[in-house]
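Service request form, structural biology core

Requester: graduate student, group of Dr. S.
Request type: structure prediction, single chain
Budget code: on file
Notes: please return the result as C-alpha cells.

Sequence provided:
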Amino acid sequence: MKPRIVRFLLGVAVSGAFGAGAAAAVLYLTLASGLPDLRSLDDYHPALTSVVFDRNGVPIGEFYEFRRQLIPLEQVPETVIQAFLAAEDDSFYEHSGVDYLSILRAAWSNLRGETLQGASTITQQTVKQLLLTPERTYTRKIRELILARRIEERFSKDEILFLYLNEIYFGSGAYGIAEAARTYFAKEVGALSIGEAALLAGMPKAPGRFSPYLNPERAEERRRWVVERMREEGFIDAATYQAALERPPLAAPVSETYQAAAYFTENVRRRLVALLGNDVVLHGGLRIETTLDADLQRAAVLALRRGLEAYDQRHGYRGPLRRIDPKTLSAELEKLAEENGLAGGGDPTTSALAAPRLGVVTALDAGAGKARVAFAPGVEASLSLSAAEWARPSKNLAVGDVARFRVSRSDSGALVAVLHQQPEVQGALLAIDLESDDVLALVGGYDFAESELDRTSQSLRQPGSAFKPIVYAAALAHGKTPASIVWDRPVVYDNFRPENYGRKFLGALTLAEALARSVNNAAVHLLEDVGLRNTIDLARSLGIRSELAPQLGLALGSSSLTLLEITRAYAIFGAGGRRVEPRLVVRVRDRNGDVLLERVPLDESAIAEAETEPGPEAAPEPPEPVAVAERSPDEGEANGPPVPAVPRGHALAPEHAAMITTLLRAPVEHPGGTSRRAASLGRPLAGKTGTTNDHTDAWFVGFSPEIATGVWVGYDQNRLLGRGETGGRAALPIWIDFMGQALAKRPVRDFDAPPGVVFAHIDGEGALATGGGLRQAFLEGTEPTESTERATDVVDRRRELELGF
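Core staff response, request fulfilled:
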C-alpha cells in the first residue's frame, strides 16, 4: 500500500476516533447536565409513617401516604444485610457504583435470548429510587450510571446501604426494611430470622410477583433462592442453611388491633390534622401516644357486636344473600373461593373481628338437624341447625342458599360453620377513665369498614330517660333531697301529655324511687318545679353543647345530643363533680422525639370546626362551666345548711355529685329498678336506661368508681327498634358485657363521699326506714330524722298505688 494512502487512512481513523470521542464527550456533557443535586441526600428526610400507640405502647393504627419507618444501619442485623447483598449485589463493597462485569454478563445473556437479566448495583437502585424516574430508556440508564459513580465518590458504602434499605419498596404499601418487617412478620428488624430476611431480600426486584400474600409459591421459590445464595457467598454454614429453608410464618395482612381501633384512630387523625396539618400527620413520622386501652377496645367492639347481633336475631332472618342452582355448584364455588380469598388455598376459619365467609348450603338434613356449607372447592364445614334456631332454618334455609358464616374448628379439627347475619341496626360505645379523663374505648358503629360515621360524637339522637339524671341533679343543686316527694299523676301541658312506660301512675314518690323506676310524669313535674333555665344551665356546665329546647319535654330527653355529651355528663357525676374533658392523646412526638402536643381532647365541636378551617397550634382550652343559679340558705323546701359552692374546675359541687351518684345507684339496686340486671356484676354501680317514646333510640349510661361508659343502640334512619326494645333490653346487656371485662381485674371499691355528706336508709315515704329501704346520700343536716310508724316496703306500697288505664 502506498504511503500516501496509508497516511490518508490513518488520518481518517484519527479523525473518526477524535470525532467519536468528541461526540461521546458532547453526549456525556448533555446527559450530565441538569442531573439532580446530590446535596439533597445529605439531609435524607423521607416521608415517614406516623404510628398511633395505645396507653401501653401497643401499635393501634398508622397515618401515611407512604408507609415507612426509618432505621439506622447499625440497628440492622448483619444477617439481614447479608441477605440483601446475596440477592441484589454480592460485590457491593468492591465496586465503585457500577459493576461492569455484571453488565457484560447480563448483556451477553440477553443477546443469546436467555432470560432477561438486570445488572443494577445497590448504588444504582438507590439512584433510581431517590433521584430519577422509573422510565426504562437508555438515556435514563446512562444518567443512572453517572449518578452512581458520583454517589460513590460522595458517600460511604454504609451511607449508601442506609439509603437503599430505607427507601426500597416491598409491596403491600411498605417502604423500607423496617416497615416491611412489621408488615409481613409483625416484627422489628432486629428480630428477623435468616429465613424471614431472605424473603424480604427477594422482594424489591418485583414486589408484586414475589409477594407472599399475592403469589405465595413464587415468593417461596425466591426466598429459597436467596438462602441458597447466602450459602454460596459463605454468609451461612450448612446447618444454618438447612434451618433457614423452613418456611417462616407470616403475620396477618391487616392487624385486628388496627381494625378494632379504627373509629378511635380516625378521631385522632381528624383532631391532629386540625392542630398540625395534613402534611405533618401523613409524612411526619409522628409517634402518637394515646389513651386507648387496646384490650378494652377489643372487648368493647366484641360487646357491641354481640349486642347488636342479638338484637338482630330477635327480629328474624332476612333470607339468603342470593340463591344458586345446585347444578352450577362447581362454577359457583370457584367464584366463592375468589370472594373469600381462598382461591390459592388458605385457612377458611375466621376470628371474632374478621369478616364472615360467604358460603353456600350444599346439603340439608332437617331431621338430623345438620347441614353442610361449602366456601371453596374442597372446603366444607358442618352447620348445626339448632345453633341457627333464631333463623328458623327448617323453613328458611335451603340447598343453594348463599349466606355469611363464621368458621372455626372443633376439637377434632373439623370445620364448623355458624350462620351470621350482618345487623342493620347500629350502636356505639364510649368509655372514660374517671381519674385521668382518658378515653379507654370508643366504638362508633358495628363495622368501620362498612360505615365510618362515628356515632359517639357525630350523631345527634334523643337520649330519652337517660337525660333525667340531669334534671334530678339540678333539683339537688336547688334544695331537693333524695327523700323529697314528687308526684306522678296525669297532666297535660299545651298538648304535651307525658305518660309512663306501661301507662300507670304511682302517686307520691321520693326522688330516689322516681328515678329508680324512671317515672316520666315525676320527671316532668320535677323539671317544672326546678325550672327549665336552671336545668339547661346545669346541662351546659356538664358539657352538653347541643341545642336544648326550653320545653318540659326536655325531662324525657326530647332534645337530641351525642353519646359523648351524655357520657361526659355522667362521668362528671362519677368524678365527684370535677369537670371532665375526655382526651384522646397523651402526647405527640415528632421523628426526633420532640414533643409537639400534649393532652389532646375528644371534643365534638372542635372536630366539627376542624373540617372547615385550620386548628390552633395547641389543644384548645375547654370552656368554663356555666354556674348554677344560687339561692339563699332559706330557699327551697329544706332549711338546712347553705348550698355548697362549686369549686374551681368543677361543674357540680362534690356534695351534689355524691348525692346524684347515690340516686343513680337506685336503678341498679332497687328491686324494681330499670337497670337491675347490672347488679349481676356484684359491684357498686350507678346508671340509667334511656328509651325514646317512639322506641327509636335505646341507651344505657352508667359508671363504677373507676370508669364511665355510655351505650347507644338505634338505626341511622330513625327506624323503630320494635316493641319491648328498651334501653334495658337493647343497650344494657352491651354495657354489662363490656364493664364486666373492664372491671374484672380491678379490686371492688365503693364510691367516695366528700365531707359534709351523710347516708341514711329511706322508705317509700321519704322517712327513715326501720327495715330495708334505699341507702341515699344527704347534705349533713338535711337527712330525715324520723321514721314512719311501720316499716314501708317500697315495692308493695307501689303495687297498691298503681293506677292503670
